[in-house]
Design a protein that fits this description.
The protein is of the alpha+beta class. 39% of the residues lie in helices and 26% in strands.
Length: 155
């Protein structure tokens, strides 16, 4: 069955995409939950007109995302963590802490769009993360984990 998505659905498509799915998946899950509508010829025609009008907005959002990605490539973020005397971190560094550090740099990124490339960060050092900025635009950022005691000494 051909459907038009009303919102982004992981591993299926983005809002306003026309996708083909199995009939049962569409009838029993996507359409009743309000995630999609069946793509009839009249709905497709109206959808096409709406998509033409959105094309300009899409291009502007894409340009903004590219400029943000370029800006993020050049930023090294410092994440402060509590550490033991041996340099081990109490707990681990999460995407929430990276999002907060980016916000201090003036870049507001939702924590759910940040993926840390290392499984568990338990020591001080420099690491990488990937930020999903817009549909297919991603940026790799570098963040440095520093000790809370180092920051208090420098102040």
């Amino acid at each position: 069955m051909e459907i038009i998505l009303k919102q982004d659905i992981p591993n299926l498509g983005y809002k306003d995409d026309i996708v083909i799915v199995k009939d049962g998946y569409a009838r029993n899950y996507l359409i009743p939950k309000g995630y999609a509508v069946q793509a009839t010829p009249s709905i497709k025609k109206a959808h096409l007109e709406i998509m033409k009008q959105r094309a300009k907005k899409e291009e502007k959002a894409r340009k903004d995302a590219l400029s943000l990605a370029e800006r993020l490539q050049n930023i090294t973020v410092k994440v402060v963590a509590k550490t033991s005397s041996t340099g081990k971190i109490f707990g681990s560094v999460t995407n929430i802490q990276i999002a907060e550090a980016l916000e201090k740099e003036g870049v507001n990124i939702d924590r759910r769009n940040i993926t840390i490339n290392t499984e568990h960060i338990k020591e001080l050092g420099t690491y990488n993360a990937t930020v999903n900025i817009y549909k297919d635009i991603k940026a790799d950022i570098t963040f440095e984990v520093i000790s809370e005691t180092e920051t208090s000494k420098s102040e």
